[in-house]
Specification:
The protein has 146 residues and is α+β, with helices and mostly antiparallel strands. Helix content is 36%, strand content 15%.
């Protein structure tokens, strides 16, 4: 069991220096969470998923901001997420994201991520499913962010 705010604090501490070096703003938003909320889940797997999402957001965002958020709805559903003002994803590239070695080969993506092999989102999606979620869901507009 763990307090989700502790997880968000750890992620903030982990990434704040990298974001500062890149000149990006970093916000952490918590909505609908009671003061006594405790999660019964695998904290390490959740940390791995969010670390991957934040790393991708940082790689593909040249300017602007990244937001790490946690929303708890009255239905009991909880959503963690990352928003960025990065380069976004073209429609034709979206199906590749959760495939093994599913790197986007366009020059702009390659320039920003020349060392990635295309496994991070696949693994993160599998971990999210193992934690009981429907997987990772995303929205992205090319030129605006994800």
């Amino acid at each position: 069991d763990f307090d989700p705010r502790d997880l968000l604090t750890s992620l903030y501490q982990l990434f704040k220096h990298q974001l500062n070096l890149k000149g990006l703003d970093f916000d952490v938003i918590v909505e609908g969470l009671s003061a006594y909320t405790v999660f019964c889940s695998d904290k390490e797997h959740l940390m791995q998923i969010l670390t991957n999402l934040l790393s991708n957001a940082i790689k593909f965002t040249k300017k602007g901001k990244i937001v790490l958020y946690l929303q708890q709805f009255t239905s009991g559903e909880t959503r963690f997420g990352v928003r960025d003002t990065g380069i976004g994803i073209r429609e034709e590239d979206k199906p590749k994201l959760f495939q093994m070695y599913g790197k986007i080969e366009a020059e702009e993506y390659h320039r920003l991520n020349n060392r990635g092999v295309g496994l991070g989102l696949l693994i993160s999606n599998q971990l999210a499913r193992a934690l009981g979620a429907d997987g990772i869901h995303f929205e992205s507009t090319y030129g605006e962010g994800s």
